[in-house]
Write a structure and sequence with these properties.
two-stranded antiparallel ribbon, about 260 residues, Rossmann fold, single chain, alpha/beta, 9 helices
C-alpha cells in the first residue's frame, strides 16, 4: 500500500478501526471517516505517533454534501484517492410484525427502516459516487463494500439490514461492470459473526448459539475482515472484480 491513499468509513471502531490500522501498517495514508470524533481523532493520532499517516474526518456517509466536502479536503491534502472501504454500518433490529398471544404488539418502524437504509445502502452509494471520478481520472482504484452473510441468506428480525446489504451486493456487481474499464475493481466482503461492540450487545445465549453454528468454533475478529479488505485492495487482487467474499468461518455451512 506504499503511496496509496485509503478512505475507511466507519473507521473509528470495530472492523473499521482494525482496517485503518492494517492499511496504515501496510504503508497507506488513511482517512478515517466516522461520526465518533473522539475515537476517530485518537486513532488517527495513534497511527501517526507510530509513524503512519492518518487523518480523521467527521463524516456522516448518508449526507452527500458532507461526503463531497470531505473528498475535496482529502484531495487538497494528499492529492489522490486510491481505495475506498465502505465499512460504515448500523443496525436497528425488529420483526416486520411481532405477534404475541395472537395479537400484533409491534411493527418495524419507518424511522428504523429509513435510518438503516440511509447509512448502510445510500451511504455506500454517496461515497462511491464521490470518489469514482478521481479514480477514473487516474485509471486505478479499489472500491470495497461491506456486505454481510445475511445479505446473501436473510436473517430473522433484520428486514432493514438485510435489504441494505442485499442492495450493496447488487450495487457492487453493477459498479464492477461500469468501472472495470477504467482500472477500478469493485468487490464486497460479507462478514459473518464478528466480535465487535455491535455484536457484544447481543444476549449471551444468542452469542453462544452463533459460535456453536460456526464450524471453526469461534467468533471472527475485526482483523479477519481487515485482512480481506487489505487483500482486495492490493495489486494481487487486480483480476478480482464483482466478487462477494464471505468471511464467516463457515457460518452459512453450519446453519
Amino acid at each position: 500500500m506504499n503511496g496509496r491513499v485509503a478512505i475507511i468509513t466507519g473507521g473509528a471502531n470495530g472492523i473499521g478501526r482494525a482496517t485503518a490500522q492494517a492499511f496504515a501498517r501496510a504503508g497507506a495514508a488513511v482517512a478515517i471517516w466516522d461520526r465518533h470524533q473522539e475515537a476517530g481523532t485518537v486513532l488517527a493520532e495513534t497511527i501517526t505517533a507510530a509513524g503512519g499517516q492518518a487523518l480523521f474526518q467527521r463524516v456522516d456517509v448518508a449526507d452527500a454534501a458532507a461526503v463531497d466536502a470531505a473528498v475535496a479536503a482529502l484531495l487538497e491534502r494528499w492529492g489522490r484517492i486510491d481505495v475506498l472501504i465502505n465499512n460504515a454500518g448500523i443496525i436497528r433490529d425488529a420483526q416486520l410484525v411481532k405477534v404475541k398471544d395472537g395479537q400484533i404488539v409491534a411493527r418495524l418502524s419507518d424511522a428504523d427502516f429509513d435510518t438503516v437504509i440511509a447509512v448502510n445502502l445510500k451511504g455506500v452509494f454517496t461515497c462511491a459516487r464521490a470518489v469514482a471520478p478521481q479514480m477514473i481520472a487516474r485509471r486505478w482504484g479499489r472500491i470495497i463494500n461491506a456486505a454481510s452473510v445475511v445479505g446473501l441468506y436473510g436473517n430473522f428480525g433484520q428486514t432493514n439490514y438485510v435489504a441494505a446489504k442485499a442492495g450493496v451486493i447488487g450495487m457492487t456487481r453493477v459498479w464492477a461492470r461500469e468501472l472495470g474499464r477504467y482500472g477500478i475493481t469493485v468487490n464486497a466482503v460479507a462478514p459473518g459473526f464478528i466480535a465487535t461492540d455491535m455484536t457484544q450487545s447481543m444476549p449471551p445465549k444468542v452469542l453462544e448459539a452463533m459460535i456453536a453454528r460456526t464450524p471453526v468454533g469461534r467468533a471472527g475478529q475485526p482483523e479477519d475482515v481487515a485482512a480481506a479488505y487489505l487483500f482486495l485492495a492490493s495489486e494481487q487482487a487486480g483480476f478480482i472484480n464483482g466478487a462477494v467474499l464471505s468471511v464467516d468461518g463457515g457460518l452459512v455451512i453450519g446453519t
